[in-house]
Amino acid sequence: MIPVITLDGPGGSGKGTIARLLADRLGWHLLDSGALYRLTALAARRAGIDPEDEARVTELARTLPVAFEVGEDGTPRILLDGREVGSELRTEQCGADASRVAAMPAVREALLERQRAFRQPPGLVADGRDMGTVVFPDAPLKIFLTASLEERARRRYNQLKEQGVSANIHSLLQELADRDERDANRKVAPLRPAADAIVLDSTELGIDEVLQRILDLARERELA
Ligand code: DC
Description:
With about 220 residues, the protein is of the alpha/beta class.
């Protein structure tokens, strides 16, 4: 069985960064499942499709012409229709649209097999909201990463500032709170820890400490 480490949690908890570093350290593949929901939302917007039109958005999700590549400098590149979409994908608008399309059961179903196909030797680190509960329920190590809302908003704010994007900490906090609410209360695959997940609160922890704890757990379970 190909091992999977699932990393679920709310937006801004540091999952994305930790997942990438973890996959690098282990030499495993990486699934950024949020990117698939963001890509679906972006493709809908570009095609002029109403993000609430479940049938048409589902069709898009099923046929999404997307490629995940690694650039010459080692950074991941995401292509939609052959064109790089990295920065557009990370906007708050795209995140909010993604959270809407992600609430539709048929869209989630359409993306399920695509996500499972990332499980390739020697292993996979899967980052998302329902990796441990729905997509990889048999994963041998499940982490649920949280942090306080204020800390997550502060991290998002700093991240955007570093990218030269202007942001307002109060509206970021509100957007994160709205998205948490939508992700946690939707009917299908709501954001919650799997029964066998280990919950890590990173409010007071640095990236290196979180990474080290997960690597220790992986070693304890003889995955690494
Ligand atoms: O992790 P992210 O911010 O890129 O995710 C964008 C949105 O996609 C988020 O609001 C919830 C949704 N999502 C989901 O429902 N299930 C996943 N496995 C990953 C993301």
